[in-house]
Amino acid sequence: MKTRNPYLFTYFNLCLLAILQVLLSACTEQTEDKEEKKKYSIYILGFDKQEYLLQTNSLTEGILTPEKNGVLLNDKIVSREMIVKSGNYYHLDSKNNKLSRYVKTTTRLKETGVLNIEDFRIENFFWLSPDTLLLVGLDRKTSSIPKYHKINTTRFNIIESGPLPLPKPQGKFESTSIGFIHKRENKLFIGFTFHQFNESYNYNSSDTIYMATLNYPELTLTNIEKDTRSAYPGGINTVQPYSFTNENGDFYFMTCPGIAMGNMPNEPTGIFRIKADENLLDQNYFFNISSIINNHAYGLWYLGNNKAIVRSERKDLYTNFSDLHSTYNFEFHLLDLKNQSTQKINLPLDKGTRKECVIVEKGTAYIAVNAGKENNYIWIYDIKSGTLKKGVQLSGETDYIFRIDRNF
Question: Lower Cβ count inside 10 Å, N or C end of the chain?
Fold first, then answer.
């Protein structure tokens, strides 16, 4: 009578157990790696110099830590210069000529589409429709050749691309910045400026604002307007917004002559307007912010009812550009666009030069403030009453809250 080999039986069972564990692990990993569809998105730079992306359904309470509640990002292929819409993240890796579309899962940032876009750096974007994205930018080598790409974000393909009929820098000016784009019916407005390189923070800007008006969709140039009331119209809006359209269809944009942008500190930060029924800058409107707060501002968020928020530096609290971003010196101010007055919002001093840090919805502004380790909060600002209270806390490795976005 044959007897069963106990060693063989044990070996067989161990192999079977190992196979089952592998299968179970694979199923668990697949189950956990689900697309996350929460209402808000938060982009963090940690004290560990790592970057994280979090999502949450509430900004009003609780504690979030990037290393526990977020996913770690590969900063070699993605950065905070993102476009966030409808649960998708769009990012251009200009070094590799790759425009990617991502979704956040519970474990990673997952690429769901990729387009080849050569020799291009995004300066501004504009949503022509819910699924049509217009990208405007410059060549990578000289930053002086304006280009555009129109993208269908559902099929994720390029509809059309080409050059933009804007003048190139001349004389002492070597490069260009495109500070805003705005489409209104059959017109496209593009604000831009020119730069020259020097020893102080690499470059400074022209003391003239340029605004081109193009026919749309032909993209033929009809007019270039010049204005010397301030310098550097707008800014890179994948990092921070600088313009909006109000309830009446009037378009507003802010200039950025401060050392973090135009590096023309003797020029005032100001707000310009193009009326809804006009195609030229309103020569009767210029909101000189610097003359009131005696500082420069970066970032403009519209609250409704002719009210807006700007984020301004305090030149008495930093030394120069080298410590501007790391010093707690930024204040938030409420602007009355009609009466051209300002009021400081009673928030702690913030740090970080340029951030997408305000979300406005249903009479509330959610404002992200970095006020020191374990004191990073998204504050809840009641627009009507002006009252403030702390919302969700960003703890753990949180150093900078680079951006907060509404996903859906």
Answer: N
